[in-house]
Each structure stands twice: as C-alpha cells, then as structure tokens.
Write a structure and sequence with these properties.
The chain contains 9 helices and 12 strands. It has an 8-stranded mixed beta sheet with strand order 1-2-4-3-7-8-9-12, sandwiched between helices. A two-stranded antiparallel sheet has the order 5-6. Strands 10-11 form a two-stranded antiparallel ribbon. The two termini are 13 Å apart. The N terminus is likely disordered. By secondary structure, it is an alpha/beta fold. The radius of gyration is 19 Å and the shape is globular. Strand 8, helix 6 and strand 9 form a beta-alpha-beta unit. Helix 6 packs parallel to helix 7.
C-alpha cells in the first residue's frame, strides 16, 4: 500500500446568493481563486521536440441500449507507437471533451505522448466519452437537450460499467486491438465523473484495476456517500486508486466534498488498498489535478 494524506482544512460553505441584472448590464467577470491560480501545467503537459504525436478521432454514439435515447460524442486517442499486432492498454475518461483537447485544461493527449515516448506508461489508447444527452422534443429549441450526466455518473450500480463493457469498448475494439487484461485498463473522472470512475472498477474489478479520481463526488447526490462504508464492509478488491481533492472544494446540500473524500481515503487505507491521496488547496475545478496529472499517471501505471 502506498498512501499519502495531506492535512485537511475545513472547507467553507459557498455563498449562494444571486442577483438579477438588467439585460443591458454585462455580467462581471469571475475573479479566479488564488487557491487555484497557484497550479500551473508543467513541461510534461507541453509538446516536446522529437516526441511523436498520437492521433485523436471523434465519433458519435447514438444507439445505446443501456441508456436508451441518450446521444453522445466520444473521442479515441491512438498513440504513435500503437502496433495492431500487440493489444494496447486502455484508459477511459468521463466528460471526455474536457480532457481531449491538446490546448485545453488537461491536455491528456499531450501528456500521453510524452509519457509513452519515455516508457513511463504503456502504449495506451485513450477513450474520451461525453455524458449522454437527449434530443430536444418537437417544438423545442435544438439546443434544449436533456442531460443524463448525473444518472450515468452519480448512480450506484453497474449500469455505466455495462455501458462501457457492452457498448463502447466493443465498438472501439472493432478497429483497434485493445487489451482485456484488467491490469492494463484504467479509468479516470472528475467530480461526478470521479465517483463514476471508482464505481466502474468497484462493480467490475475483474475488468478495471486502475482508477484516477479527482474532486470525486462521494457525497449524497445519488447515494455515493455510502461508499466508505461499502469499502469497509466488503472484501478488498484488486483496484489501485489515485485520489485527489482540494481543501477548498465545495460544501452544499449534498455534503462536503473535502470530508467525503477524506472518509473515502480513510476507508481505502483501512482495507489496505494500493492507494494514494493527494490534497491541494483548490476549489471545485481541474487546476490542481491537471497540474499533477503526469505524476498521477506515472504512479497509476507503475509496475
């Protein structure tokens, strides 16, 4: 077991007041939090000379049987080192559109390029999946689409795991040679996507052995606050977990994200999981987690 818990501070409650503005009055720009602005992307998140770039391709998935009617986009990253004769490792990302941009907040394809080139992680196909949306009803504006994110991500049970294993992975596997070795399958998510990532491995530990969860919503949105007790009560599963949160993460009617993550970390440690918990000072966003992503991946993919 390899675990590190940094000191927690009590996260303050969020101010919840909102004020109506006249249509002609522009909204004031949001002031960046100093707790977040201290975190910057490092060289592993920047393109490096001589490092070959993988290819990202966008797809649609509109015929789900697990989540009928929900439509979504997903992207597949194939590293330059991919050899169709050798099964590639797989890493799945929830809220995929936020991770897949080379100039975005996470820049996962760039990080993958650099770490794969240095053999600090295996040759890995990245699958970046957006949550489902329902088409607008007749007579409604086209941009009024129903959101299925919380149902898919915050719900306990095996529905999302089945969605991956029965639909997305077989579809991607039609054109790519993907491993079925659970030691070479990882899953990552942030916030509700973070609890979703853990839940997939929890429900299918014979399929996914590696989890990276950041600012995870282990709170009572749809029962996720039960996870610490579930972890303590169950036999230890073959899951490696890298966990991240910030001391100024949110506190609202669903619970305290810092305290929920702290409870989750304590439960994983008590059961002897291969687990590392890194805590920064950030609020509910990706700044801290993105800044440590290369180190998190190195830890997750270590032998």
């Amino acid at each position: 077991m390899n675990s590190r818990i940094l000191p927690f501070l009590l996260a303050p409650a969020l101010a919840a007041s909102a004020f109506a503005q006249a249509p002609s009055t522009p909204a004031a720009p949001k002031t960046p939090s100093p707790y977040d602005e201290q975190y910057k992307l490092g060289p592993d998140s920047q393109p490096q000379a001589g490092v070959p770039e993988g290819k990202v391709t966008e797809y649609d998935w509109n015929n789900s049987k697990v989540f009928p009617g929900a439509e979504r986009k997903y992207w597949v990253y194939v590293p330059a080192q991919y050899d169709p004769k050798t099964p590639a490792a797989v890493m799945v990302f929830q809220d995929g559109g936020g991770y897949v941009k080379r100039d975005g907040g996470w820049r996962v394809p760039v990080v993958f390029d650099n770490l794969i080139a240095r053999k600090e992680m295996p040759v890995t196909v990245g699958i970046f999946i957006n949550p489902g949306e329902f088409p607008a009803k007749p007579g409604e504006p086209a941009n009024k689409r129903g959101k299925n994110r919380s149902v898919e991500y915050d719900s306990l049970g095996d529905a999302y795991a089945r969605f991956l294993l029965e639909e997305i992975l077989p579809e991607v596997g039609k054109t790519l040679n993907l491993t079925k070795d659970p030691n070479l399958r990882a899953i990552q998510g942030s916030s509700s996507g973070g609890i979703c990532a853990f839940n997939v491995a929890w429900e299918r530990p014979n399929e996914f052995h590696k989890v990276l969860t950041t600012i995870g919503s282990f709170t009572n949105i749809r029962g996720g606050d039960k996870f610490p007790d579930m972890v303590r009560a169950a036999d230890k599963k073959p899951i490696r977990v890298f966990q991240e949160d910030g001391t100024h993460d949110i506190v609202n009617q669903f619970g305290s994200w810092p305290e929920a993550n702290k409870a989750m970390a304590a439960a994983l440690d008590a059961k002897g999981y291969d687990h590392k918990f890194v805590v920064g000072e950030g609020t509910h966003n990706s700044k801290h987690a993105a800044s440590i992503l290369p180190d998190a991946l190195r830890w997750l993919w270590r032998p």
